[in-house]
Protein backbone atom coordinates (compact mmCIF):
# COMPACT_ATOMS: atom_id res chain seq x y z
CA UNK A 1 0.00 0.00 0.00
CA UNK A 2 1.38 3.37 -0.95
CA UNK A 3 0.07 6.77 -0.04
CA UNK A 4 -0.91 8.78 -3.08
CA UNK A 5 -2.28 11.80 -1.26
CA UNK A 6 -1.91 13.12 2.22
CA UNK A 7 -3.60 16.17 3.66
CA UNK A 8 -3.63 17.58 7.13
CA UNK A 9 -5.09 20.55 8.94
CA UNK A 10 -4.85 21.39 12.61
CA UNK A 11 -7.71 19.05 13.57
CA UNK A 12 -8.31 16.92 10.47
CA UNK A 13 -6.11 14.59 8.44
CA UNK A 14 -6.53 12.30 5.46
CA UNK A 15 -4.34 9.65 3.92
CA UNK A 16 -5.24 7.95 0.66
CA UNK A 17 -3.93 4.49 -0.12
CA UNK A 18 -4.30 2.34 -3.18
CA UNK A 19 -4.00 -1.44 -3.21
CA UNK A 20 -5.18 -2.18 -6.73
CA UNK A 21 -8.87 -1.70 -5.96
CA UNK A 22 -10.72 1.53 -5.33
CA UNK A 23 -8.67 4.18 -3.52
CA UNK A 24 -9.18 4.20 0.23
CA UNK A 25 -9.31 7.47 2.10
CA UNK A 26 -8.64 7.35 5.83
CA UNK A 27 -10.20 10.42 7.47
CA UNK A 28 -9.45 11.32 11.07
CA UNK A 29 -10.24 14.20 13.38
CA UNK A 30 -12.94 16.79 12.86
CA UNK A 31 -14.58 17.24 9.46
CA UNK A 32 -16.16 20.66 9.80
CA UNK A 33 -16.30 24.19 8.41
CA UNK A 34 -12.52 24.51 8.65
CA UNK A 35 -11.69 21.31 6.77
CA UNK A 36 -14.70 20.27 4.66
CA UNK A 37 -13.99 22.37 1.56
CA UNK A 38 -10.43 21.05 1.19
CA UNK A 39 -11.60 17.51 1.89
CA UNK A 40 -14.35 17.77 -0.73
CA UNK A 41 -11.93 19.12 -3.34
CA UNK A 42 -9.48 16.30 -2.63
CA UNK A 43 -12.21 13.65 -2.94
CA UNK A 44 -13.37 15.12 -6.24
CA UNK A 45 -9.80 15.27 -7.52
CA UNK A 46 -9.27 11.67 -6.47
CA UNK A 47 -12.44 10.61 -8.33
CA UNK A 48 -11.25 12.45 -11.45
CA UNK A 49 -7.75 10.96 -11.30
CA UNK A 50 -8.30 7.43 -9.96
CA UNK A 51 -11.84 6.50 -10.96
CA UNK A 52 -15.36 6.88 -9.68
CA UNK A 53 -15.30 4.38 -6.81
CA UNK A 54 -13.79 5.52 -3.50
CA UNK A 55 -13.89 3.97 -0.04
CA UNK A 56 -13.73 6.45 2.85
CA UNK A 57 -12.82 4.98 6.23
CA UNK A 58 -14.47 7.25 8.80
CA UNK A 59 -13.73 5.10 11.86
CA UNK A 60 -11.30 7.74 13.20
CA UNK A 61 -13.60 10.67 12.45
CA UNK A 62 -14.34 12.35 15.79
CA UNK A 63 -16.83 14.90 14.47
CA UNK A 64 -18.70 15.72 11.27
CA UNK A 65 -20.89 18.79 10.85
CA UNK A 66 -23.22 19.85 8.03
CA UNK A 67 -20.29 21.09 5.93
CA UNK A 68 -18.63 17.70 6.28
CA UNK A 69 -21.82 15.97 5.17
CA UNK A 70 -22.03 18.36 2.22
CA UNK A 71 -18.49 17.36 1.17
CA UNK A 72 -19.54 13.70 1.17
CA UNK A 73 -22.69 14.50 -0.83
CA UNK A 74 -20.77 16.52 -3.43
CA UNK A 75 -18.22 13.74 -3.82
CA UNK A 76 -21.01 11.15 -4.17
CA UNK A 77 -22.59 13.22 -6.95
CA UNK A 78 -19.25 13.52 -8.74
CA UNK A 79 -18.69 9.77 -8.42
CA UNK A 80 -22.19 8.90 -9.67
CA UNK A 81 -21.78 11.15 -12.72
CA UNK A 82 -18.83 8.93 -13.60
CA UNK A 83 -20.65 5.68 -12.87
CA UNK A 84 -19.31 5.01 -9.37
CA UNK A 85 -19.98 5.86 -5.77
CA UNK A 86 -18.61 6.60 -2.33
CA UNK A 87 -18.53 3.81 0.25
CA UNK A 88 -18.28 4.78 3.90
CA UNK A 89 -16.43 2.23 6.02
CA UNK A 90 -16.18 2.06 9.79
CA UNK A 91 -19.17 4.32 10.45
CA UNK A 92 -19.46 4.84 14.19
CA UNK A 93 -22.84 5.20 15.97
CA UNK A 94 -22.82 9.02 16.18
CA UNK A 95 -22.23 9.45 12.43
CA UNK A 96 -24.66 6.62 11.66
CA UNK A 97 -27.34 8.51 13.59
CA UNK A 98 -26.65 11.74 11.67
CA UNK A 99 -26.78 9.87 8.36
CA UNK A 100 -30.07 8.25 9.38
CA UNK A 101 -31.67 11.53 10.56
CA UNK A 102 -30.69 13.33 7.35
CA UNK A 103 -31.69 10.42 5.11
CA UNK A 104 -28.14 10.12 3.83
CA UNK A 105 -27.92 6.56 5.09
CA UNK A 106 -29.70 5.61 1.85
CA UNK A 107 -27.20 7.57 -0.25
CA UNK A 108 -23.90 5.95 0.69
CA UNK A 109 -22.92 2.31 0.59
CA UNK A 110 -21.56 1.30 3.99
CA UNK A 111 -19.19 -1.37 5.19
CA UNK A 112 -18.24 -2.21 8.73
CA UNK A 113 -14.57 -2.81 7.86
CA UNK A 114 -12.09 -2.36 5.03
TrEMBL record:
Domain STAS: 28-114
Source species, domain of life: Bacteria
MF terms in GO: anti-sigma factor antagonist activity
Transmembrane segment boundaries: none
NCBIfam families, A to Z: ant_ant_sig (TIGR00377)
Family: Belongs to the anti-sigma-factor antagonist family.
Protein name: Anti-sigma factor antagonist
Classification of source organism: Bacteria, Bacillati, Actinomycetota, Actinomycetes, Streptosporangiales
